[in-house]
Amino acid sequence: MMQVESHSQTENWSWKSQSAQDAAEILGIDGLSEEVPTSAHVVLAAQLKLRHLRRELSARLSNSLEAYQVETGLNSKADLSVEHVWGRIRRVQAARDKLLLLRRRLSADELMSLPVK
User: Fold this and answer.
1) Element (H, E) at 117
2) Considering only CA atoms, which of 11, 113, 100, 114 is closest in space to residue 47?
3) How far apart, in whole angstroms, are the C-alpha atoms of residue 75 and residue 7?
4) Any residues with CB less than 8 A from the CB of 38 and at least 6 apart, and which?
5) Domain limits of the chain?
6) Are 46 and 92 spatial neighbours (Cβ–Cβ below 8 Å)?
7) Residue among 74, 31, 25, 17 at smallest CA distance from 66
8) Tens-of-pLDDT digits for all 117 residues of the chain?
9) What is the pTM of this model?
10) How far apart are CA 47 and CA 41, in angstroms?
11) Are 98 and 20 in contact (CB under 8 A)?
């Protein structure tokens, strides 16, 4: 006999996948939480990370890294190259897109599982 999983079990299984956990970690979202983050939470976390990374990139491109370090207190990241910052930006964008796609799929599954009146 086949057992049908409840929506919450499916949602938690999808959210607990390794790729979703990795994406959540990149965005700084608590991946160990039982609740799946909302789309708004994912977007906000990504915006905050991207804003920080774009400032870092701008500082590196304008050769004002010393001023940036004094302003933010970042001394350990002084050796990071522009390409490395671009890579981090791309990873944050990919993590955001992955989690938003997961949310969209979960919402679609939820709509499909609603009883027809």
Assistant:
1) none
2) 100
3) 46
4) 103
5) 7-112
6) yes
7) 74
8) 334 445 555 555 566 788 888 999 999 987 656 677 889 999 999 999 999 999 999 888 886 556 555 566 555 455 558 889 999 999 999 999 999 998 888 777 666 666 666
9) 0.68
10) 10
11) yes
Calpha distance 62→26 (Å, rounded): 26
CA 13 distance to own-chain centroid: 18
HEC string of 42-93? HHHHHHHHHHHHHHHHHHHHCCCHHHHHHHHCCCCCCCCCHHHHHHHHHHHH
Residue 105: strand, helix, or coil? helix
Provide the residue type at 115 as one letter: P
Contact 28/49 with Cβ under 8 angstroms? yes
